[in-house]
Structures are given as structure tokens and as C-alpha cells.
Amino acid sequence: MIRRWMLVVPFVLASLAVGSDVTFAVYESNVDMILEGQVEVVDPVNPVDPGKPVRPVNPSKPGTPGPLSIDYVSNIYFGKHRIGKETSTFYANLERVVQADDGAEIDVPNYVQVTDNRGNNKGWQLNVKQAGQLKNGNHVLEGAQLTLLNTKLVSPSRGMEPASSQNIRLNPVSGEASEVMYAAENQGTGTWIGRFGKDADEGRSSIRLTVPGDTKKYEGHYSTTLIWELLDSPI
Fold first, then answer.
1. Cα 159 from Cα 234, distance rounded (Å)
2. How many structural domains compose the chain?
């Protein structure tokens, strides 16, 4: 029996020595990275296929710079129409853009594009207001009603989708702001497009101008301005 114990004990000790790790020193090193909000102006993208950049044929002014920006807003054109005595409804022309990949011109719904690259996920709100009634010199198109319809949201990003208003009736008299898109906390990060109409077909009837029949109408060019306001947090 004594010989057996003398053979077994050295074996156990040897196995413990082989399987153990000995720590001689500990040292900590740092890993750092800084993320900054984007400051360049973001180019417009196709509102139907947002992964593809486009160049508007009749662009508005450049987008706003900074990490929270309005990248692009379509100008609204109603074209030429004859003066009539009845109440009339007119629909805006589609936006015409040039595809960057093949140079082809296509019609897309009118749209607004917003980018949030702040990195704080606080959310934002986009409003629009009409700066007065359509005018032709001193002639005012009294009672004309501009309405934005069928807002559809799309994004090349993977953030959480914000909310949108579907029937935006602008008030040219009070100039009151109307909500277009609303991103709560953790929503609306990256680039988001609000297009008026899901496609070109629906887009043809998604921005309308109604003019009462008894409004005095004079020959000439009528115009007004829309003011788009991007708030850095929802209210």
C-alpha cells in the first residue's frame, strides 16, 4: 500500500503544475474614438429610391449646413392656367431630377429632406408656414388654399421612423406653422425624406391649390414663399 501512494502523489503534483497560469503583472491601456456631427451640406437623394443621389433640374437654394439640417425642399410649380369664374383646384407639377448613375431625367414626387447626424438622439420637428397669400404685384389671390397631402417617409438610413402629417392646410393669413414631420427621442436619425405621394402617380395630386370662383383674378404671375423650420427637439 505504501508503494501505491508514493506513485500516485507525484503524478497529481505534476498535473497541477502544468495546468496553472501565473500572473506576473497587470497593465491597462486605453481605446479612444471621437464621433463628430456632420458639418457638410447633404446632397439630395431620390425620394422614391433614397439610396441613389440625384440632381434637381430646377433646384431651390442649397441645403443648410450642420449636423441637423434641411438638405433640400422642392420648389412648387403649378404651371399656366386660364382664368375661370368657377372654383378651381390646381395640382403642382412633379419634381424633375437627374439620376447620378446614368444621367436620365425622371419625375418624382415633390419632397423635403432632413438629416440628423448630431449623435444625441434627441429628436426633432419640421414645420412649414406660408408667408402670405399668393400675389401678383398688388393683386392678391384672396381665399386661395394651399394643401400638402399624402406624406410618405423613406430613408437610406436604418433609424427609427418619425411621424408625419398627412393633410397640411397652410394658413397664409395667420402664418401659423404646421407640423410636417416629428421625430421623438431616438427617432429620425440619419437622413429622412418626406415625399408628397408614394410615387409619381400619387404625387401628381398630392399638392393642391384651391381658388374660389368669386376671387378677383388678374392676368400675371402669382407667387408666395414657404418657410420651413427645423427645431432641434420635438415640442
1. 17
2. 1
Residue 61 belongs to domain spanning = 2-231
Question: If you write DSSP's letter for every residue of 168-181 in order, what string do you get?
Answer: EE--TTT---EEEE
Beta-carbon count within 10 A of 74 CB: 27
8 Å CB contact between 138 and 180: no
Distance CA 185, CA 124 (A): 8
CA dist 47 and 94 (Å) reads: 12
Tally of CB atoms within 10 A around 14 = 10
The length of the chain in residues reads 235
How many C-alpha atoms does 225 have within 13 Å on its Cβ side?
Answer: 6
Cα separation of the two ends of the chain: 87
pLDDT in tens, 2-19: 334 343 434 444 444 455
CA 99 distance to own-chain centroid: 19
Beta-carbon neighbour count of residue 160 at 10 Å? 16
Which phi-psi region, left, alpha or beta, contains residue 73 (left: φ > 0; alpha: ψ -120 to 50)? Answer: beta
84's grid cell? 375661370
Q: Could you tell me the pTM of the whole model?
A: 0.83
Query: Which residue, among 154, 38, 44, has the nearest Cα to 96 in the 3D structure?
Result: 44
* Mean of per-residue pLDDT scores for the chain: 87
Give tens-digit pLDDT for 91-132.
999 999 999 999 999 999 999 999 999 989 999 999 999 999
- Residue at 186: amino acid letter: N
